[in-house]
């Protein structure tokens, strides 16, 4: 006799679909937070100035062009096949499962490394702000921003908090990110606008002349740096299965990308209006707080530091969200374990995967405190992350050109947009990655375990790629994943997820 005949209700099957509750603004908030314009501006302008002098504005503009081409490839692929695994799925179907798995793998490992390293950086920024407001000790512990242990501990508290928010609902997480972005951009635009109007360094159109850069090597190095200022806009596509319409992901990504262009151009010109070149280079890592202190008295001078702290927190959270969803897509294809596919029955999020990602990042960060050599490795990995980004952006763009190669019969315009632009943009990104690898090889004449040694920096992304090939072999021969046998994967549910009409 069945259990229902006795009045018992059989247990419901665990949910397998993410909950659709996001719109365009939510996607834009995730993408903008992941790109972290405030953090890039605050610590990156001095680095670019040291490389190309006063030509930072033109490099921001030139770097935007291939990134825009990559974004158009993402939008076209997402319109054809919305999937939270994005590049992992698209490259796998267009170029083959091995490069597809590698695309997913390097994205995930790069994000975990970023989380482990950025947690301590975020903790340091929080401690600097705490010192500014007069808090120097808590429970007998000195709140020293220079202490790696204390900074890491505070960073882990932040990471735990943003992970909890990401687990309980991506919509609530995006609302927090949007609020933080509004504050960040208001502060950034206010201080940069002030510097633009009152700066004593004369404005010059030569800042937009790329031919004034001292050498081809300096141009290439500067362009690499500028391209990776934009890294993170693709986070909007990681929540495509949680948006009410697949096109909302593309709209959110493009909104964030064009906003980044405006902010980077505006800030680069404003910084150069207010600071001389030696001044900008010297204060590069603290350029935004330095600008605040130069233009205003306390407490207003601390607003840029507060904006930087908010940017760091939002960036950490926006990295947790897409990483868990990428692993969800891989788990569905059995290229990774089933634990990554667990969806929380109440919150409709990949809760288990989100917590595991945070735990792995936290473990790596704690090991880095205990093992100074590991800390050096993390720093080198972050410095070399451009190679990883170039690889997965480039492969995804090439996959777009291959998938839509039939558009060559649909007229010159469609052929250009579907094939030409993605192929050219992918080639540029892969070429920049190749140049970056070459620069690492030539910057050192021997191998040493130091974050400024080129061979060491090149060895880390190489290890990530080799590790990805090993994991791909495990997925193919050990797990016998359908991703490697059929070439299709098990992502059909991505196209038919139910709309969550109860979401606010």
Automatic annotation (TrEMBL):
The chain crosses the membrane at residues 28-52, 58-77, 98-129, 149-167, 179-199, 211-233, 254-271, 305-328, 349-371, 377-404, 416-435, 455-475. The keyword Transmembrane applies. Coiled coil: none annotated. Gene3D superfamilies: Amino acid/polyamine transporter I (1.20.1740.10). Pfam families: AA_permease_2. Keywords: Cell membrane, Membrane, Transmembrane, Transmembrane helix. It comes from the Bacteria. It is found in: Cell membrane. InterPro entries: AA/rel_permease1, APC_superfamily. It is a multi-pass membrane protein. PANTHER family: AMINO ACID TRANSPORTER-RELATED, MEMBRANE PROTEIN. This is Amino acid transporter. It comes from Streptomyces asoensis. The lineage of its organism: Bacteria, Bacillati, Actinomycetota, Actinomycetes, Kitasatosporales.
């Amino acid at each position: 006799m069945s259990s229902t005949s006795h009045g018992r209700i059989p247990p419901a099957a665990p949910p397998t679909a993410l909950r659709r509750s996001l719109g365009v603004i939510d996607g834009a908030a995730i993408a903008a937070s992941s790109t972290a314009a405030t953090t890039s501006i605050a610590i990156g302008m001095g680095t670019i100035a040291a490389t190309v002098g006063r030509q930072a504005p033109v490099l921001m503009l030139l770097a935007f062009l291939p990134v825009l081409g990559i974004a158009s490839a993402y939008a076209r692929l997402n319109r054809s096949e919305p999937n939270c695994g994005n590049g992992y799925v698209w490259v796998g179907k267009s170029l083959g499962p091995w490069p597809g798995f590698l695309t997913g793998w390097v994205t995930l490992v790069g994000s975990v490394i970023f989380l482990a390293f950025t947690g301590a950086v975020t903790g340091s920024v929080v401690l600097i702000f705490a010192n500014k407001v007069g808090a120097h000790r808590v429970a007998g512990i000195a709140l020293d921003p220079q202490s790696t242990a204390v900074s890491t501990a505070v960073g882990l508290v932040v990471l735990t908090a943003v992970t909890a928010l990401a687990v309980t609902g991506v919509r609530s997480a995006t609302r927090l990110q949007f609020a933080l972005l509004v504050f960040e951009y208001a502060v950034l635009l206010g201080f940069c606008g002030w510097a633009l109007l009152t700066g004593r360094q004369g404005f010059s159109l030569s800042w937009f002349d790329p031919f004034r850069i001292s050498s081809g090597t300096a141009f290439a190095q500067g362009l690499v740096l500028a391209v990776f200022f934009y890294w993170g806009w693709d986070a909007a596509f990681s929540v495509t299965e949680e948006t009410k319409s697949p096109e909302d992901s593309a709209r959110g990504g493009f909104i964030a990308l064009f906003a980044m262009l405006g902010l980077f151009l505006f800030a680069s010109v404003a910084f150069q209006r207010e600071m001389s070149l030696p001044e900008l280079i010297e204060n590069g890592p603290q350029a935004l707080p330095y600008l605040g202190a130069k233009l205003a008295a306390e407490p207003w001078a601390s607003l840029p530091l507060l904006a930087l702290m908010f940017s760091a927190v939002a960036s950490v959270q926006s990295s947790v969200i897409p990483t868990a969803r990428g692993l969800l897509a891989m788990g569905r294809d059995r290229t990774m374990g089933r634990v990554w596919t667990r969806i929380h029955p109440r919150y409709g999020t990949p809760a288990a995967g989100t917590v595991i990602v945070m735990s792995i990042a936290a473990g790596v960060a704690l090991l880095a405190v205990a093992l100074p050599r590991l800390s050096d490795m993390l720093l080198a990995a972050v410095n070399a992350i451009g190679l990883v980004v170039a690889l997965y952006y480039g492969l995804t763009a090439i996959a777009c050109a291959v998938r839509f190669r039939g558009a060559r019969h649909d007229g010159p315009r469609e052929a250009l947009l579907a094939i030409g632009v993605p192929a050219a943009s992918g080639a540029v990104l892969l070429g920049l990655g190749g140049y970056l690898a070459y620069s690492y090889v030539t910057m050192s004449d021997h191998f040493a375990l130091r974050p400024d040694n080129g061979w060491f920096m090149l060895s880390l992304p190489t290890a990530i790629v080799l590790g990805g090939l090993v994991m791909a072999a495990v997925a193919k021969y050990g797990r016998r994943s359908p991703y490697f046998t059929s070439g299709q994967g098990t992502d059909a549910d991505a196209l038919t997820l139910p709309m969550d009409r109860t979401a606010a």
